[in-house]
Write the structure tokens for this entry.
Amino acid sequence: MRASTALSPDYALPRTPQARANRILRGLLEEALFGLPFLDSRLLQELLAGKEGRRAEALVLAGLRKSPVLAKTLLPLPLPPAWREAAEEGARGDLRVPLFPELLAA
Amino acid sequence: MALEAARLREALKRMVPQPTDYVSFDGARAWTSGMVEVEIRVGEERLAPVALPRKFFLDLLEAAEGEVRLTPEGQRLRLEAGGFQAELLTAEAFPQPLLEKAEDPAFRVGEGFLEVMESAFPLGKKLTSHQGKVLVEAEEGRVRVVATDGYRLHLHTLEAEVFQEGAYLLPAQAEGALRALEGELTFHRAWGGKALVAVAENGRAGFPLAEGGFPSYRNALPSAPPLGEVEVERRALLQALKRALAVAHPENHPVRLRADGEGVRVEAMGEGFLPLSEELLPGRGREEVVVNGRYLVDALEEVRKEEARILLYSGPGVPLVEVGDEGFYGLIAGLRPPKDAAGQG
């Protein structure tokens, strides 16, 4: 059986909103940590398409608000305005105090 | 010519894969070139240098035991091991623009340096905007390795023979290059001070120095007397912290250390800093602090002393937690209490 990756012809988008949201967050982390392009990708557009995509986006926003560490990690990315607002809100919940704030500026 | 298969195999595994994953080989040395250059000694007899696909070469050697015979035949390299024979297509060997340009030695350190870098680089890499840089300062008789992820600072001090004092910003890519080497290292400047070449018993590694700056870490070091302290047996504290981390809130892993007349209490904190567990250890001290338990464990694992002495200082809104011994200094900012924590902070 061939491996199913985002580039292979038999790749199928995650079906449920939660699975799509997980895939979106993983893609954002990969871009933030390793520089792998995701925000401008066709894959992201497809993950956000349709009713399942809109629900997935709502879950992504909830995830950003809920996790300060995730939010702070993703803030340096060129996020869409609503996502940035959710990440900023989430980051405010970060209880860590930086020793070197200049390193953490977006 | 004949080589020990195990020695050659080990060298190929230590190579830092470059985008093309080819390794150059001349019978006595194997080397890679690219962002970093790594060269490892594998034998004594030299051949005309060639480049080979590293993964295929390694796969052919995986089952070989004892000696392997290598014979160049035009644009191929014949490999014979036991009853097995294979040929690999070769290409022109890569130059070593960095390793060949090593200048005078800057400093020499023992094998403890490589152990220190194994914890310093991962700490620096936790902060992507910082690009995983690690600062190495060479001054009379010692070398200091400085790493930070923005929230904590680790300083390792090692004895060294210093020929030229200076500060060197190592990029994240240097981690893989240095991991290929063993034993005592002598660092040489290269490219007019813009790169370093490390020479070890088993080979050499070269890498350009990182650009940009490093935080003025000395400004973060406490200068006022401590507010409090906690003294407890290090191993017992580590074990208690690990138990607390199993239940502490997964965001920031808050753990409170509190020294009172009875001993040292280690409390796992949940959401809103509600205490979830408490463990009392023999110890002494005064004051308390809530700190990221994982950060404290990482720092305590670098300390060698049996007794852990944790000092608390006034910091930017929260106490600063200092842990260390002669060779290691760790500084961690405490956690600020959540706004809605009832009765806390």
